[in-house]
Amino acid sequence: TQPNAAFLAMLAHPSLVPIDKVLVGRFGDKWTKPEHFVSSGAYKLSQWVVNERIVAVRNPKYWDNAHTVINKVTYLPISSEAADVNRYKAGEIDIAYTVPINQFAQLKKTLGSELDVSPQLATYYYEFNTTRPPF
Question: Are the C-beta atoms of residues 105 and 117 closer than 8 Å to each other?
Answer without folding.
Answer: no
